[in-house]
Specification:
The protein is α+β, with helices and mostly antiparallel strands and 91 residues long. Helix content is 35%, strand content 35%. It contains two helices and four strands. The chain has helices at residues 58-70, 72-90; strands at 3-12, 18-26, 33-39, 46-51. Strand 1 (3-12) and strand 2 (18-26) form a beta hairpin. It comes from Paenibacillus auburnensis. This is DUF1292 domain-containing protein.
């Protein structure tokens, strides 16, 4: 499954928590997805998956959500895209 990162960002909030998002596309899926990340300390991450624009296939959405739950490399690829933007902002 080919994944393309469209846009990513991560910000540190006043309470020192982290909030970020990554917009991405998946080969043969018609609409892009957006994953939103949240962490109180930057070590354990919660996420929420949604469509980035128009809603697409529920079946494909559930497939991506299952992949996020079961494939650490896939999840980390999307999280790393957001984390990379945080490092840029701090420099």
């Amino acid at each position: 499954m080919n994944v393309e990162i469209v846009k990513a960002e991560l910000k540190r909030e006043e309470d020192k928590s982290f909030v970020g998002r990554t917009v991405f596309t998946i080969e043969q899926h018609k609409f892009p997805y957006e994953i939103t990340f949240f962490s109180k300390r930057g070590s354990e991450w919660d996420y929420s998956l949604s469509f980035a624009g128009e809603p697409g296939s529920e079946e494909q959405f559930l497939e991506v959500d299952t992949l996020l739950e079961n494939d650490d490399d896939f999840f980390n690829q999307l999280l790393d895209a957001a984390l990379d933007t945080q490092e840029d902002e701090e420099e």
